[in-house]
Specification:
- The chain is an alpha+beta fold and 129 residues long.
- It has one domain (2-125).
- It has 3 helices and 8 strands, in the order E-E-E-E-E-H-E-E-H-E-H.
- It has helices at residues 64-67, 93-102, 114-125, and strands at 2-14, 20-29, 35-39, 45-51, 54-56, 70-77, 83-89, 105-110.
- The strands form 3 sheets. A 3-stranded antiparallel sheet has the order 3-4-5, with no helix packed on it.
Length: 129
């Protein structure tokens, strides 16, 4: 693992209806079969693991991720048509809803339970597991 800090961080403006400043603090390079864990002050955790073919972008959506206090969601930006996967921290749903409304985002599907993931699967491939 190698971390290249940006000091000072690169700053840039993002947002649709309400703009805010993001701070790009650095670049983290992982070798195959390395993992890093990101944490919040409240104890939520998010793992990213590198493989020789790419990345595991999240822990299992309906297992470890929910156990770490995060809810996966497939999000669509109504204005741009772009899609995102968000990880919403449990207990922060009110802040997420305010952000979602202000940025014209819609929840396509919550990806945080076996039932919701099975529904997505059935809609995409037409059968039940």
């Amino acid at each position: 693992m190698r971390f290249d800090s940006k000091d000072p961080p690169r700053r840039f403006t993002v947002g649709n209806a309400e703009t805010f400043e993001m701070h790009d603090c650095g670049t983290l390079a992982l070798a195959p079969d390395e993992q890093v864990t990101l944490t919040t002050e409240t104890g939520a955790e998010y793992d990213v693991a590198r493989k020789d073919w790419g990345f595991y972008a999240t822990p299992s959506l309906n297992g470890r991720l929910t156990g770490f206090g995060l809810r996966g969601a497939l999000i669509r930006n109504v204005l741009t048509g772009r899609y995102f996967v968000f990880l919403v921290e449990r207990g922060c749903e009110e802040a997420f809803e305010a952000y979602r409304a202000a940025e014209s985002l819609e929840v396509v599907a919550w990806l945080d339970s076996t039932a919701s993931l099975d529904n997505v699967r059935a809609a995409l491939i037409g059968d039940k597991p």
